[in-house]
Amino acid sequence: PRPDSPSPVAGFVLDQFVTFPSRDGFEISLDMTVEFELEPESIAWVFRQFGDLPAVVDNIIMPQILSISRLKGSAYRATDFIVGEGREKFQVDLKESLSKTLAERKIVVHNALIRHVNVPDQILQPIRQASIAQEEDLTNQEKQNTARRQAQLNTEMSLIQQKGQEVEQQTERIKAVIRAEQEKQVAEINADTLKKSSEIAKRTAEIRAEKTRTLGKAQADVKAWVEGERAKGLKMQTDVFGDSSAFALWEFSSRLNPEIRVNLIHAGEGTLWTDLEKATIGELGGAAMLRKGRYPAPNPGMATKGLPMPEKDSARP
After folding, report:
1. How far, in Å, CA of 30 to CA of 76, rounded?
2. Could you read off the pLDDT of 116-125 as tens digits, one per residue?
3. Strands 11-21 and 27-38
4. What is the arithmetic mean of pLDDT over 126-150?
């Protein structure tokens, strides 16, 4: 019974060995399996018409299998059941004919499968040898195709490796060009920087030299001007005294320590030691000489430092 059948006696599988002649006169034996089903609503009718299940198989199903197998099988050659599409086509024709014929008797055929085919050795051996030769030829062809594809694959792999090496070499060349260009640019930048640094250093040196010259000239001019003004001042002072010796004496006296006291006494005419007690300071030395007109009178507008102004001699005009 079929496992999915609604009734435990509705579905059956029949294994049967069928023999019939082929179109070319050889005896063909088929080991086939027929799967059929008795529908529940038709079981009573089938049993009334044909009897119980063994009677249905012996009187209805088996005669139809043998009849249709002989009828359909006689249209095929013995080789069709071994090679080619003949076996599959015969199986389809057998299943369709059984289904159509048994359906009139309320028997449903689900499958008719050929499991094994027996043919005479005089047909089977040449077919097997031819089939083996054909399979060997196909195998050799496949081996050749495989070898050809392997050779093609090896060639393609070699080309891929060659292309890879070319790409690597080209990449290295590009890297070398880029590296050389970068080094060139760096060298140019360094050279330009060094040139600009040299120009800046040169310009700085020129500016410093110009500064030194300008400062030196300015300092020299200032010094010359100061010395000139100082010389002018000295000349003016000398002109005031009227005599460079007098100015020198005045300059000398102005630089003496204010705490130093110097008395210059000139004996004049006569003997110093004999006249010293009789004469006063104004009658001796430089004072006496001034009265006699040996030194020119100083400028009235100039104040003499450390030198007493001489008294006006009433005897001189």
Report:
1. 13
2. 888 777 777 7
3. antiparallel
4. 83
pTM of the model: 0.39
> How much is the CA Rg of the chain, to the nearest whole Å?
78
Query: Rounded to 5 degrees, what are φ and ψ at 107?
Result: -115, 125
CATH tag, 11-119 = 3.30.479.30
End-to-end CA distance of the chain: 189
Average pLDDT over residues 62-73: 86
Looking at residue 221, its pLDDT comes to 82
DSSP string, 244-279: HHHHHHHHHHHTS-TT---------SS-HHHHTTT-
Residue 274 is predicted with a pLDDT of 52
CA-based nearest residue to 40, from 69, 11, 17: 11
Using one digit for the tens of pLDDT, what is the confidence trace for 11-35?
555 566 788 888 888 888 888 888 8
The contacts of residue 120 (CB under 8 Å, 6+ apart) are: 26, 27, 78
196 SS3 class: helix
Contact present, 2 and 36 (Cβ < 8 Å): no
- Per-position DSSP letters for 45-82, written without gaps between them: HHHHHH-SHHHHIIIIIHHHHHHHHHHHHTTS-GGGGT
Q: What is the pLDDT of residue 199?
A: 87
Three-class DSSP category at 294 = coil
How far is the CA of 311 from the CAs of 19, 26, 107, 296, in angstroms? 191, 191, 187, 13
User: Would you state the pLDDT for residue 83?
Assistant: 67
Residue 315 has a pLDDT of: 40
Question: What residue spans define the domains of the chain?
Answer: 11-119, 121-240, 242-317
Contact between 119 and 81 (Cβ < 8 Å): yes
What number is the average pLDDT over the span 128-151? Answer: 84
